[in-house]
Design a protein that fits this description.
2 domains, mainly alpha
Length: about 130
């Protein structure tokens, strides 16, 4: 999905709306004067509605962010595909290629390094 596509903009607006409703639901759960009383009369459903709104917002955030960083990483690996094939022909391991790729990006250690290394190794196996 393109960053400026109409579908992405609609999903972003829907995510923001769900987040606002979730925050409202969190702070007004059980309140008999809540605006949710227009739709849901019984206050015993407030927790379930709050959880459902939070899960919906979480899923939309995942949909919005799922492809972006991975596509950039995959694109960089595809640009360097010829060099990667050359390294493989020289007998270099997938782990060595991934670590050298990440060191060129400036990622050295920590959680970000482990996640990026896992993604690079996964894409290298698909790159063939």
């Amino acid at each position: 999905m393109n960053n400026n596509s109409p579908a992405r903009i609609v999903l972003f607006i829907l995510t923001a709306l769900l987040m606002l409703l979730t925050f409202y639901a969190i702070f007004n759960a059980g309140n008999p004067n809540s605006l949710f009383r227009l739709v849901i009369r019984d206050t015993s459903y407030d927790i379930a509605v709050t959880v459902a709104l939070a899960v919906g917002a979480f899923v939309l955030v995942l949909v919005l962010t799922m492809g972006s960083p991975q596509n950039r990483l995959r694109h960089m690996l595809e640009i360097n595909a010829e060099h990667i094939r050359t390294l493989r022909q020289k007998g270099k391991s997938e782990v060595f290629i991934a670590e050298s790729f990440l060191s060129e990006l400036g990622v050295r250690s920590g959680l970000l390094y482990r996640l990026a290394k896992w993604r690079v190794l996964r894409y290298l196996s698909k790159l063939g």
